[in-house]
Amino acid sequence: MNIDYSKCTDEQLRVAIAKWMGIAFCPSCLNELPDPDVCHCGDIRKNHPVDHGFVPMGCVCGYADQSKVIKGTIPNYPNSLDAVALVEAKLNRNQYLDYAEWIREIVYAADNNQTDAEFDFSCFTATARQRCEALAAVLQLPEVKL
After folding, report:
1. Tell me, what DSSP letter sits at residue 85?
2. Contact at 8 Å (CB) between 91 and 68?
3. Which of 31, 63, 75, 115 has a CA that sits 20 to 30 A from residue 38's CA?
4. Domains of the chain: which residue ranges?
5. Category of 72 on φ-ψ map: left (φ > 0), alpha (ψ -120 to 50) or beta
């Protein structure tokens, strides 16, 4: 799998990482679903009444006035170092070593005028977006079509 993650949009990286993290979310509104088997009315899927369609709790796709809806509650990994830190914490030792190498390459590609010291500290200065690209490469995340 040779995907150039630098060409992925923030949303593609966000969705791919959320899937790897095991977060259940609506693919349309990108809202996290605390329990995909519970409807917004409170009934579980197998006992759901037929008087309205099943809309998982957390999903906002079925609301009539979409202008008042906050969309996208899954973490915004490409723009949040705090969110990326949660992903980094799940890496095993080998993944983390590969991750550090990928970060160095990505940061160096963005600024190839770095000194040796700056290159060595690239793991500390990488942006959330650069970290997501490195994570996607290490975890070999499939490309997400949105």
Report:
1. H
2. no
3. 75
4. 75-146
5. left
